[in-house]
Design goal:
This protein has a single domain (3-282), classed as TIM Barrel (Alpha-Beta Barrel). Helix content is 50%, strand content 14%. By secondary structure, the chain is of the alpha/beta class. The chain is built from eleven helices and eight strands. Strands 1-2-3-4-5-6-7-8 form an eight-stranded parallel β-barrel, surrounded by four helices. Bound molecules: flavin-adenine dinucleotide. Flavin-adenine dinucleotide (FAD) is lined by residues 48-49, 51, 82, 84, 109, 111-114, 126-128, 145, 151, 153-154, 160, 163, 167, 175-177, 204.
Length: 291
């Protein structure tokens, strides 16, 4: 069993998602954030993937940086690249998987990505097609995306849940899109159980440190944004906005833990203070004495 699946089950996992920013200075800052947050001993971390041009190589560079720092640093944990298949050929995916294995990667998050008219059609359409290749060519653990509020390209809820259950059965675990109401997560888990699917689905939670850009993503994904929370975030700035974002995320995490979620995946937006605030509020992931 690979890195992440082995860590699931005993108690809820905590993991962090980073994105690979543009430019050398931002890259160094992002790596510093990952090193700083490694003191909170996450069960794993992940790095998002950009489908086009230089975005592709930025993910690989950041995965290499984080793998190197986590192996040589204080806290060793799996580093999981996200991998989208839209616009890719099978041989490009093989090359990426080989490269990741050489860095010591043991898990990938297998995603479709969003259609890109600027990219060639490629050999894949759905995440399932990518999972098949990852399974054929590696012994990596495989995670997949889940959408509590239904994927925007799904024709209806029942079809979304049926396809999600089929995809999860090919994978080892799921991670959700962020959401702001624990009922969406609870309902999705119940619907999957109704289809006989018990594959663990970790809950994705985002502290909203940047309300404008989180709202853009939410609108793209059909994610409900509570107007009261957004109003308070927009009326505040600096440390007050951070406090509101942390309180809201910590409250949601507590509700999800009470519901029995197998893990919490925190979307960091590369802002370490927000993640530290959430962990502190919940009394988890405290730095080791002397760390
Ligand atoms: P799929 O599982 O392929 O599903 C997409 C749609 O197709 C769904 O409506 C599904 O029901 C339907 N479908 C699936 N299989 C079939 C089939 N056989 N026949 C007909 N319809 C089918 N995007 C990035 O670009 N980079 C990232 O790093 C990234 N990270 C993400 C991390 C998480 C945790 C999440 C939740 C999303 C992430 N995304 C990322 C976004 C994701 O790539 C997009 O939302 C994409 O549109 C859907 O990806 P998927 O893997 O869920 O697709």
């Amino acid at each position: 069993m690979s890195g992440i699946p082995k860590r699931l089950g005993a108690k809820p996992t905590f993991s962090f998602e980073y994105f690979p920013p543009k430019g050398d200075a931002a890259r160094q800052r992002a790596l510093k954030t990952a090193i700083r947050l490694s003191a909170r001993r996450p069960d794993f971390v992940s790095v998002t993937y950009g489908a086009g041009g230089t975005d592709r190589s930025r993910t690989r560079e950041m995965v290499a940086d984080v793998c190197a720092s986590h192996v040589t640093g204080r806290h060793r944990c799996p580093v999981m690249p996200h991998l989208t298949c839209v616009g890719h050929t099978r041989s490009e995916i093989s090359e990426l998987l080989e490269g990741y294995a050489a860095f010591g990667v043991s898990d990938v998050l297998a995603l479709a990505g969003d259609p890109r008219p600027d990219l060639p059609p490629g050999d894949f359409r759905y995440a399932m097609d990518l999972i098949e290749q990852v399974r054929e060519e590696t012994d990596f653990g495989v995670g997949v995306a889940a959408f509590p509020e239904v994927h925007p390209r799904s024709p209806d809820r029942a079809t979304d849940r049926r396809r999600l259950a089929e995809k999860l059965e090919m994978a080892d675990f799921g991670i959700t899109q962020f959401f702001f109401d624990a009922d969406h997560y609870g309902r999705m888990v119940d619907e999957l159980a109704g289809l006989g699917c018990e594959v663990p689905v970790l809950a994705g939670v985002i502290p909203v440190t940047n309300p404008a850009s989180v709202k853009r993503f939410a609108d793209m994904n059909g994610t409900d944004t509570p107007s009261g929370l957004w109003q308070r975030l927009e009326d505040a700035d600096g440390s007050e906005r951070l406090r509101i974002a942390v309180d809201a995320a910590a409250g949601l995490v507590q509700e999800l833990l009470d519901l029995g979620t197998p893990g919490i995946h925190l979307y960091t937006l590369n802002v370490p203070e927000a993640i530290e605030g959430v962990l502190d509020a919940l009394g988890i992931g405290a730095p080791r004495a002397g760390a």
